[in-house]
Design a protein that fits this description.
Helix 2 crosses helix 3. With 724 residues, the protein is of the alpha+beta class. Helix content is 21%, strand content 33%. The protein is globular and about 95 Å long. The protein contains 14 helices and 39 strands.
């Protein structure tokens, strides 16, 4: 399968704002305060926030310059037809011979062209093409594709294009136009091209992501900037690069910024006389994908463009500090106008809070109140027609949020700030980078990097960070993408950069308990109780928010079944409370595992860790390229009791095992008690980001975990109290 470079919608995990395009005409007409207010009260901000940093990382779909928009293809050379292997990566399944991307910010479209050579049987998978897009925003046009056989004859694609949901590693979901090219065999050349139309407000988010999963022999990137704006670009080798040199300087009415990393020493974007920007590269190495790595596009060399202009009423932006200071002032003004002074806010506080309540108790009560508001950010995106039919009015201020009973995630957070202040607590909005997809880069002057909103409140001498604007998020917890994330607390004079608290393993726990019986045929069955805590509960509530009872039941049963040996059956007996923003999510199941015990004569072999039976242990490779990046620290707790069948007793038990490093620990023990086998297991991972140098230690740790989990217990048949 080949995934085209494209724009992805932010549908995975917890979104912090609603997603609706911001009409360009309306945006142009708004005043400064109204624009910032709209940032808080409409779904526009959320979409722009989410889209801008996704496009920064991923780029909207693009294709070839004008020559490839015709019904013709560049000539294929004899060398390309004869190619048998990738010289830079021998044994590779395929190679990108040519790639052209063009963005036209003046006409609001982007085009993309690929030529791929299939080198092995495995490479035939690249005949399956997926072009990601944002529904109701991006329109895919002029799609053409063909297969060139090894003898040079061509077969044009005339098949059907489907729309499908694709799930990437890490749970990111997006829509894609999907099709399969015909008659692809070893030695074939695959070609396809298309145009993507998008709204004018996306023109500020162009990025060129340079490497792909295959080696690229030739690549040509180009941009036609929007007239009348200063165009700026940076290029980088990814988050692993710590050296960066930045410059902002005027150049014929333009300003150019760059970092010297990620590109060959003799290569840089070039502005031509017609004001277009070009970059031509050769032999771009394939990007190696690895399990548990940071967001891929943070690691890839890329060129990011943005239009440099000061905020209304401000002086010229000369440095990144100027930009973020102006942005902070701009957002602060709009936020304070949205909060305003309203009797309704004071009335709600008087109804809920006792003046004698300690600050923490006040915040908890107010938190529960604002989470009763309908959260538009948690709902599926609607078309403008659907929104008009529902007749939802825009919220002009926090009083409207209370009166209407609905709001976006940021609006709910701002209301919480207003209520907290009215109760006498110092509180402010904090905009942070969502590290599920991106890490903050201060030299990239796009405020869309700060895509998540949380609240910072002062309780005594402590700052607490809260997010009532994320549905199901309990008090005291932040969605994991907003933890240990750098952000800006807007203030009147610009604002302060703040980093949200680090995630803790106690904030992400899943506990499994089993009370089971093993019969004389080797079948294991009984009750399993599963409790998800903190991030684990929040994630499952969010992922199943749009499912009905049957869908939620299936999701839980399928997950438990995925832990057990093949052929197991699972039935949910006690469903959890899905709708509460609680710390835990508990469910009870009846499970049945055939052939769990392996009979060998008078003995039975079994591995008591039934919940680890199908586990895929990480870090099997002996080498590592990228840093190790877990979503968050985590704890796994297991307690299993297995009743031994009559006529058998425990003959041998593995000795207890433990393994510990400063950042993780593991322990497992089994014991025999009166005809029952008891297992206790605990795995704690206290870190979430590790440099490559820690890979060997992590690999040793998980090898120890695997060895401990797979150890067997031996039962022996007895007769009349005597072993056979």
């Amino acid at each position: 399968m080949f995934l085209a470079q494209a724009c992805l919608s932010g549908t995975d995990g917890q979104r912090h704002a609603h997603t609706r395009p911001f009409p360009a005409a309306r945006a142009r007409q708004q005043t400064l305060s109204n624009r910032v207010t709209a940032m808080l009260r409409t779904r526009a901000l959320a979409f722009f926030f989410s889209l801008s940093f996704l496009l920064l990382a991923m780029g909207l779909p693009r294709a070839a310059p004008a020559k490839n928009e015709k019904d013709e293809w560049p000539p294929i050379t004899p060398e390309e037809l004869a190619m048998k292997d990738d010289p830079a990566n021998p044994g590779a399944p395929a190679i990108i011979l040519n790639r052209e991307e063009h963005t036209d910010d003046l006409e609001d479209f982007q085009t993309e062209y690929y030529r791929i050579k299939v080198l092995t049987d495995e490479g035939r998978k690249y005949a399956d093409i997926e072009i990601p897009f944002v529904k109701d925003v991006t329109t895919i046009e002029d799609l053409k594709a063909r297969t060139v056989r090894p003898d040079g004859t061509a077969v044009d694609f005339k098949g059907q294009v489907f729309e499908k949901t694709v799930i990437k590693t890490g749970g990111l979901k997006f829509l894609a136009k999907a099709f399969t090219l015909p008659d692809v065999q070893v030695g074939s050349i695959i070609e396809y091209k298309y145009k993507a139309r998008r709204p004018p407000w996306t023109r500020y988010t162009t990025s060129w992501i340079l490497p792909r999963e295959l080696t690229t022999r030739r690549a040509h990137f180009s941009l036609r900037p929007y007239a009348g704006r200063a165009i700026v670009w940076t290029w980088s080798g990814g988050c692993a690069t710590r050296r960066a040199r930045v410059s902002l300087r005027p150049s014929a009415g333009r300003a150019i910024a760059w970092t010297w990393s990620g590109l060959p020493a003799n290569k840089a974007p070039e502005r031509r006389k017609d004001e277009t920007v070009h970059l031509e590269l050769e032999n771009i190495p394939a990007f190696p994908e690895e399990e548990y790595m940071p967001p891929a596009d943070m690691l890839k060399p890329h060129v990011a463009f943005f239009y440099l202009s000061s905020f209304p009423g401000e002086k010229e932006v000369k440095t990144p500090d100027d930009f973020w200071k102006q942005f902070g002032k701009w957002v602060h003004k709009g936020t304070e106008e949205f909060i305003g002074e309203h009797k309704a806010v004071k009335r709600v506080v008087a109804e809920i809070v006792n003046p004698a309540d300690p600050p923490d108790a006040k915040l908890r009560k107010l938190y529960a109140r604002v989470q009763q508001i309908r959260n538009l950010s948690s709902e599926q995106s609607k078309t403008e027609k659907e929104e008009k039919q529902e007749k939802l009015k825009d919220n002009q201020d926090v009083e409207d949020v209370l009166k209407h009973g609905y709001g976006s995630g940021p609006e709910i957070n701002v209301l919480f700030v207003a209520l907290a202040r009215a109760s006498g607590i110092d509180a402010a909005m904090l905009y942070v980078t969502d590290r599920r997809r991106w890490f903050f880069q201060p030299n990239l002057l796009r405020w869309g990097q700060l895509s998540a909103s949380v609240v910072q409140a002062r309780v005594g001498s402590q700052d607490v960070f809260l997010d009532p604007g994320t549905r199901f998020c309990p008090y005291g917890l932040l969605p994991w993408g907003a933890t240990d994330a750098k952000g800006l607390r807007p203030e009147k004079d610009g604002g302060v950069f703040v980093t949200s608290p680090n995630p803790r393993s106690t904030d992400a726990v899943f506990e499994r308990k089993g009370v089971l019986q093993l019969d004389r045929e080797g079948t294991l069955q009984g009750k399993a109780e599963v409790t998800f805590v903190g991030q684990e509960a929040l994630r499952r509530r969010w992922e199943n928010r749009d499912s009905d009872a049957a869908g939620r039941r299936k999701a839980l049963e399928d997950e438990v079944k995925s832990w057990l040996p093949a052929g197991s059956s699972v039935e949910l007996k006690d469903a959890p409370d899905w709708e509460q923003a609680a710390q835990s999510l508990r469910a009870e199941f009846q499970i049945r595992v055939p052939n769990f015990g392996v009979f060998t004569g008078h003995r039975v072999l079994l591995t008591p860790g039934v919940f680890q039976a199908s586990r895929q242990y990480p870090f099997q490779s002996s080498t590592r390229v990228h840093p190790i990046y877990f979503a968050y620290p985590l704890q796994e707790l297991d307690e299993v009791t297995i009743e031994i069948p009559e006529g058998y007793q425990v003959e041998s038990l593995p000795t207890p095992r433990s393994k510990a490093f400063p950042f993780c620990r593991y322990g497992i023990s089994r014991r025999s008690e009166g005809g029952k086998l008891r297992l206790e297991r605990r795995l704690v991972m206290d870190g979430y980001f590790f440099p490559v140098e820690k890979y060997s230690a992590l690999r040793v740790f998980y090898d120890a975990v695997r060895a401990g989990d797979e150890e067997q217990v031996v039962l022996k048949a007895v007769e009349g109290g005597q072993a056979k």
